[in-house]
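User: My advisor asked me to double-check a structure prediction for MFS transporter before group meeting. I don't want to rely on an old file, so could you generate it fresh from this sequence?
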Amino acid sequence: MNQHVQVAEGDRLAKRNALVLSGAQALGGANPAIVVSLGGLVGAQLAADKTFATVPVSLLQLGIAAGVIPAAMLMRRFGRRGGYLIGALVGATGASLAAGGVASREFGLFCLGTFICGLYGAFVQSYRFAAADTASASFRPRAISWVMLGGLAAGIIGPQSVYWTRDLTPSAPFAASFLAQGALALLAICIVSQLHAPPVKTVRSDLGRPLGQIMRQPKFIASVIAALVAYGLMSFVMTAAPMAMVACGHSVGDAALGIQWHVLGMYGPSFFTGKLIERFGKEAVTITGLALTALAAIIGLTGLSVGHFWLALVLLGIGWNFGFIGATALVTDCYRPEERVKVQAANDFLVFGSVAIASFSSGGLLSHGGWETVNWLVFPPVALALLLVIWQRTQKRVGLA
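Assistant: Sure, here is a fresh prediction for MFS transporter from the sequence you gave:
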């Protein structure tokens, strides 16, 4: 009976924190949406060599990867809430530098700004783990899903911020959009200040298993590869899509709306992803997400109309949602409470490092191989991830995992 009461109390706190973090996600999630919508287009205006046009978007992803471990260290030192407050200030700084780069037509300064925006993104990406920290095992998938649901609002806030602010500074197109991005980061401070996460305890280095031992678990390997494939391919295709649309004769507005539909596809399913995981299992939802990612590539290969681009981007977003949330839930089964900080940081470093590589390669492959090549390259990683997750599910059924 006492255990049941403790679980209820824990889930009450977890539900409150998940709602707070969902609100923070709605604002923080607009950060990458704005950079992805505009980074390649602004890069094409500022870069001397158009091959480097998507570098600002890639630097966003690199910033996320580079910021994972420092963010974890700050949260260990100052707690989740303190770390998130610092992260929001970093985000406002990065957006201001990006706006300054646009206004002064300095490609390097713009790239520095998007990289720092990525550092902010590292804090935002850990919101899902913060929601899981105080949740019971049964509520954990839904807690993660609730936080990701905040991205649904981000999918509207980010592109609409671009739409309403893009022409406010005629002499420096889109500079105001990045200033709006900074304002959203400052607004996030008001929300994350309401987080009631438990104090971060100093963990002795001799407690818990060595990180290498944890990372050698078959479930951890399958989970991380599924997450990095789901996220990496989403970034790979999404980075190239706006420029591919413009190259095919579609308008910048069509490209921005395509990203909006994509982000809605990314976060909209979070209304029910947690329940699907409870009903069908983490592996089944992850497998479905990977399959949808492959289907998006198939749609991308069948035509170049606005409808083909938008449908592919929506399917890509839904595939990311199922694949990434399912894989994240799988990762939470791989560590003990005293191991969570180092394992979460290692997971995100691996995932977002791969995402950064995918994003950097996207622009060059689009420039030299075209949209068709971008889509064909989706299939091998998806096949590998599917085999690993299916194998892990089989092992679990026979009691070997």
